[in-house]
Each structure stands twice: as C-alpha cells, then as structure tokens.
C-alpha cells in the first residue's frame, strides 16, 4: 500500500514536471491543444473519482460539464455582473453540484444502483442536451453562445489575464494538478476506503453504521462539481458553448478516456484523455468519419481485454513473468 | 425489569399465504447470552431479521432500549448499538483484513477497542495485511465477528456463526463468545447443537415459526419433543 502511494506520487511528480517544461518546447498552438486536452483530462478525473471508487458508472457525466459551461457563459456574457470570471466559476461548480445532489438524492436513497443508475444518468444526459437545444432564448439553441471572454481576475493587486496562450496553459495545468492531487488524497484515505467497502458489500457497510447512500451522494456531487469546473474552464478557453458539450458523445468519450487510462487511478484518466485526443486529431485528419468507428472498437477491446486500462498491461506482464519464473 | 435490552412481543410475520412466524416473544437482558435453535425452515433467520429491524413484523413489536426499531435504516440501527453477523460471510473482499476492521470502527463515532486488539481477539494478527477475499472460510467468519465487535455493540446478533466451520473452529468460536459474554448481550441463531451445548445458555427452540420450548440448554437437550423435532420425527 505504501509503495503504491509512493509510486503514484512519483508518476504524478513526473507528469507535473513534464507539464511544467512543456512550454519551453512548444509553440502557442501546441500549448492550446494540450491545455484543452488537460481540461478534458480534469473532466475524466472527475468521472474517475466517482466511478473508480464506487464502481457505479455515470453515463451522463457530460451533463455536468455542459451545465458548468452554460452557467459560466451566461454569467460572463452578462455585463451587469461584476467579477464575471470568478462568479462564473463559482456558479458553474455550484450549479453542477446542485443538479447532481438533487438527482443523486432520489437515485441513491431510492436504492438505484448498478446498471439502473447508468441508464437513468444516460437519460439525464440526453435531457440536458435537449434542454440546451430547445431553450434557445437562454442557451442560444443549436448554435450555442459565442464570444465568451477569457478568464480574468485580480489577485492581491495583480491583474491576471488568461487571454494569452502561455498564461492560460499554466493556469489550467496548475488547477488540474491541484485538483487531481486533492481528489487522490481524498480517495486514498478513510473516505475512499469506506467507498471501496460500500462497493464490495453495501449492506454490510450499512450494518456497521455507515450511511452508504449519503456517502455515495456526497461523492457523486463532488464529482459533478469538478466536472462543472472543467466545463467552465473549457468554454472560456474555447470562447463558445454548444449543446454538444453536454451530449451523449462527450459522455461516451469521457468513459473511454477513463477506461483507457485505468479506472481508479485518477492520473491515468488525465493521460488517457490527452493521449486519445491526440490520436483523434491525427486520425481525423486522414478521414473524419473514421474516428467514431475506431473509438467504438477501442472501447469494446478495453472492456473485454483490458478492463483495468492500458496501464494494467505492465502489471499483467509482471505477474506473467513471475508465474513463468515460478514454473521453471 | 430495568436491564431489558431487547424485547420482542407477540411477533408474527406473514409472507403472502405463509405464516413464517407466529406469536414469538423474546426478552434479552443486558449482558445476557442466548441462542435460538431449530431445524431448517423453522424461521430462525427470519426472526433474526425482525430483531435487527430489517424485516417489519406484520404483528407485534420489537423494542430496543424501549424504542421501536422496525423499518429504521440499517446504519441507524447499527449506531443504536446492534451489531450483526450475516449468515453468508460478508467481508469486504477487496480490502485487507486490517482495513476491514478499520472500516468497521469508522462506523461509530468513538470506537474504544484498537484495531490491534480486535485482530488478536479473532486470531488474525498475522493475517492483517491479507486481502479479506483470500482468507479461508472460517477466518472470514471470524473476521466478520471482529467487525461486529469493532462497533462497540450493546447487542450482537449472530446468524449461524459457525456455518461451514470445522468442529475445532466451532468450539473455538464458542470459547471466544464465552469470553466476550459480560461485555454485551449476544443472541446467536444456530443449527449446530455442539456449538449451543458449548455455550450452554438460555435457548429458544423454534419449530415451524412457533416457539416450541424455551429455557436453559440442559433442560432443552433432555426434552423428548425437541429431540423428535431435530431428528425429523415430527
């Protein structure tokens, strides 16, 4: 357990260091590509925080990403609201958490688990996307909202303006690092251990005095809040928000990122998101219709062959060699 | 009496057309040990489920420290001081033995017994780092008893604690319970007569959902009717 923690911290430190020196070798365009990939990585980590520890799959996580994005857009586009960026982020996080808390309350305390939870959240994602399309007076309908200003705020007298590539990259990289580290420390300690226990045997955990539905609800709400934060960051960087951001395709993609990167590792999903988006850009440049097909195939292969993600290949090889050596 | 911990009065439960339990009474005093025995299908586990509040009786009531516990959420019942060991060993298989006990301790606000002592009690000190899923069957049963102890219960309910154990393990379990007697009340539902004999306590015999006999075990054991029921002669 202790060596596993140390390994995780080591890999985390290497990743942060790589992210830190990357601007020295990259031009502005490459920086923005990685920056956006990191935001989606944060989104993937938020799903992993819930799915990885509870074993319950949310198939509509993009709904929270989209809610965060729309709230951020509406707040920053309204000139009457002061401190738009800051209030927007707070609103995005709180809004996503609020929706998750309401939906989660009825699901968790109503005893909805497993595939049923997945199906209900799938419907939730579709409803959110439909609402974004139909409520056009607020959301801008199919075309969404454009012209969302970049994040800017004052810290101790210094004005921070994230309209440039480098500052925005550093800002995003710092937030992702801090949040992933925070989520990791929550999930490895007492909170995460009890969640694992609930995943193993919820009735047993309850019979020991643990309020399992409440714990699942809080975890789900926190996960949604982080997804909302990711959505808010994304729309400011991209400058636009559209119904796709809460759609089924993004919900599926984020599951693939987590599955590829390794469920329950928090860092793996971030890497998975970056890696797959790079692959997507490369492959789409040959033929745009090839990507969804490949994505589906990768998903099926991961589920059947490598349910613990690509990182598990190493562990598997290691145990294979061990058993070989024992056999000799 | 003032030291009554759990009182079941006139408990009956009906599943559709089946009267599973009928007119059962049970009083458990503080720090008392008692057993519920009976042949298969006598309603032992059902009765235990009613006693823990997981099943709501169709008639009668179950009161713990004077409070009706039927239908309370499981974690609330646990926090009132009722611990339970399930019939099928239910440990958290993907956690280590030590983490299993830790999770159990975290269930209550201020657990008194340290993990090390719990490990010793259930003889698993040298398996502390083992994943609970890899334990032998008997060890899983013991670990689950250890988890039940961790929440500092006033009352410990055991559903067939020795199911699947070897005769030696069964006797060791009985010894462990006798050591713990005096700290809190224990109600054990059992099938294994050797185990109940080793405990030698107040015993309630169920047959087809009704009380057949109750009293000290040595009286019960001598009872002709109980023997007939156990041997399937009635």
UniProtKB/TrEMBL annotation, chain A:
Membrane topology: Multi-pass membrane protein
Presence of keyword Magnesium: no
Protein name: Amino acid/amide ABC transporter membrane protein 2 (HAAT family)
Subcellular location: Cell membrane
Keywords of the record: Cell membrane, Membrane, Transmembrane, Transmembrane helix
PANTHER family reported in the protein's UniProt record: ABC TRANSPORTER ATP-BINDING PROTEIN (PTHR30482:SF17), HIGH-AFFINITY BRANCHED-CHAIN AMINO ACID TRANSPORT SYSTEM PERMEASE (PTHR30482)
Organism of this sequence: Rhizobium loti (Mesorhizobium loti)
Cellular component terms (Gene Ontology): plasma membrane
From TrEMBL, chain B:
Pfam family, one: ABC_tran
Gene Ontology terms, MF aspect: ATP binding; ATP hydrolysis activity
SUPFAM superfamilies referenced in this protein's UniProt entry, alphabetically: P-loop containing nucleoside triphosphate hydrolases (SSF52540)
InterPro entries to which the protein is assigned, alphabetical: AAA+_ATPase, ABC_AA/LPS_Transport, ABC_transporter-like_ATP-bd, P-loop_NTPase
Transmembrane feature ranges: none
GO cellular component, one term: plasma membrane
Ranges of residues in domain ABC transporter: 6-233
Domain of life, source organism: Bacteria
CDD domains reported for this sequence: ABC_Mj1267_LivG_branched
Keywords in alphabetical order: ATP-binding, Nucleotide-binding, Transport
Protein name in the entry: Branched-chain amino acid transport system ATP-binding protein
Organism: Rhizobium loti
